[in-house]
Amino acid sequence: MNKKITIAIDAMGGENSPDKILKAVSLFNKKNISKDDYVLNLFGDEKLIKSKLNDDKISNNKIIITHTESVISDEDSPLTAIKNSKNTSMWNCIQSQINGNSDISLSAGNTGVLLVISRMILKMMNKVNKPALAGLWPNEKGMNVVLDLGANIECSENNLVDFAELGSALYKSIFPEDKPIVSLLNIGSEEIKGTEILKNAFKKLSSLSSENNFKFNGYIEGNKIMSGDSNVIVTDGFTGNIALKTAEGTAKFITDNLKKSLTENFLSKLSLIFSYFSLSKFKKKLDPRKYNGAIFLGLNGPVVKSHGGTDYIGFYHSIDLCYKIVKGNLMLQIKKNLNHLNNESE
Amino acid sequence: MNKKITIAIDAMGGENSPDKILKAVSLFNKKNISKDDYVLNLFGDEKLIKSKLNDDKISNNKIIITHTESVISDEDSPLTAIKNSKNTSMWNCIQSQINGNSDISLSAGNTGVLLVISRMILKMMNKVNKPALAGLWPNEKGMNVVLDLGANIECSENNLVDFAELGSALYKSIFPEDKPIVSLLNIGSEEIKGTEILKNAFKKLSSLSSENNFKFNGYIEGNKIMSGDSNVIVTDGFTGNIALKTAEGTAKFITDNLKKSLTENFLSKLSLIFSYFSLSKFKKKLDPRKYNGAIFLGLNGPVVKSHGGTDYIGFYHSIDLCYKIVKGNLMLQIKKNLNHLNNESE
């Protein structure tokens, strides 16, 4: 028998926890009722979790609960929170990867604290200098991986090359059928555009591309992130964070205005009856909960950060993402991609 | 009698020129038929322009045509284009500001060439180190100014302070009733977030804010660019360009998918009949042609770059923008904002 996929879940992090976490766990179990290849390791207040699990009538043969004393507080400063983190659900959730009890960790708690604790416990992978935060974006053909989304505000050319390798490994683990196509985010598609760091990363990726498990597709501009021609978009954490949030803000602005327009008078409200199914499909495709979950890459184990404010459906998608990442063997994919570094040092 | 507002227009730049330019000129004249306070200086092939103007039956008492021999070619490299630019419509259009015949220049030609030629002819303003490209974005309350959108890929803290002063002067000239509220684009709203350059710019802007013609509002994240709480967003040209294009790409992705949804079956098509007017209003509010025109700031005279691919309605909005900028006395507003530099050197 193969070893089961074990997902460590911080049951206490984020808004409305543990309720939303447990509802998400319940939904995940329901959708995977026929599968027997996974275990969910929940960390948090055992008594509270058990009472809620009973409330939800979840069959808990796929659930292991580990009691933890405290929770990372959003009131404390990050520094204080980290200092006092040893007995928290978040800390123990990640620590279980070191103990060999889990393959991946998932939390909706404070991002900054999660990044620091993860790095403290799991440590950087050999040959990777900086970890990166990767996210999923919808595009015309399906989904993109974009990284870094804010773990590093300044990056060297070697960091960007690492991110290309980490990101394409992530893409490959989630979409095993596809070949990752990597692009560097820049302000033009010509080779002469951009900073020296980008130009040097371009050169390195061009030479690596052929011997690697991804295809390097050159530069991409911001308006092509969602075109679907590339599926791994690499950038520094400052630019990636601005791009992600600008896209979120733009999407909100447009859909808010659309909603206003479609409910402003009797006729437009009437039209909603006829377009109900089409608009539901449209809404479903763009539902940000489907893309919930940023993946922390470059450590000796994957950590997924769920949006703190998402609901149980969003958190369910994060659990599903964790399942896919482990099933697709992310850590092996990363090691394959980093292989050229061995060759270089020979 | 006051001096008239004179707008120099490169009639040959961009796609479908001079046709679209002349149609835009015609539309502008029609909409301003009661006004007698402006003149449009057209630069290009005189014979061609005259024949087209007659075609369009434009009354041309508000138009002066200056014949120019050649046009900046998109086929040439920027360097070759610049070398051979002396007799072009673009060059003469900008040169007319030096000769005192125009207050502002407008072109839909090659952006890179326009930026270089503008700088060669008009020269940098005293005390401004780098020019910036500013654009207009829709927001919940009206419109934003965002800069730099790509003129400078790397910026110092002093450049960012300059951009705040240039951008708020631009905002004041277009919207004389409002007080410009300036924010720095960053990856978080807390003071400790971001690069050293941003932190230093934050400090300088905080101390300048009170004695200036704008209010400094601190940091802003990408998802708040369109919230309307700030109306001047300052960033370096790399980040600004990525943010602008990402917003464009996101808007296109959403509206394309919406269109697909609303025309996919008989019922959804039927709904369009009832929502026609609401959706038209929605479309009109988001129409990118309304925001057409990037403003090149920091030179001894304003230059506006229209999108090369826009149609005559987009170009009309750029002419209208030029009119407002001169009427609002941009150059005086800039000098007012830069005043603190005099005080500092005393």
Keywords:
homodimer, 346 residues, alpha/beta, Isopropylmalate Dehydrogenase, 11-stranded mixed beta sheet, 12 helices, 46% helix, 16% strand, globular
Please render the helix and strand layout as text.
The structure is a homodimer of 346-residue chains.
Chain A: E1 5-10, H1 19-31, E2 38-44, H2 46-55, E3 63-67, H3 78-83, H4 89-98, E4 104-107, H5 111-122, E5 132-139, E6 142-147, H6 157-174, E7 181-185, H7 196-208, E8 215-220, E9 232-234, H8 237-262, H9 266-286, E10 294-297, E11 303-305, H10 312-327, H11 330-337, H12 339-345
Parallel strand pairs in A: 1-2, 1-4, 2-3, 4-11, 6-9, 7-8, 7-9
Antiparallel strand pairs in A: 5-6, 5-10, 10-11
Helix pairs in contact in A: 1-10, 4-5, 6-7, 6-11
Oligomeric state: homodimer
The CATH class designation of the largest domain in chain A is Alpha Beta
Percentage of residues in strands of chain A:
15-25%
What's the architecture of the largest domain in chain A, going by CATH?
Answer: 3-Layer(aba) Sandwich
Whole-angstrom Rg of chain A: 21 Å
Characterize the main sheet of chain A.
11 strands, mixed
Which spans of chain A have pLDDT < 50 for at least 5 consecutive residues?
Answer: none
Write down the CATH topology of the largest domain in chain A.
Answer: Isopropylmalate Dehydrogenase
Give helix and strand order of chain A, one letter per element, not per position: EHEHEHHEHEEHEHEEHHEEHHH
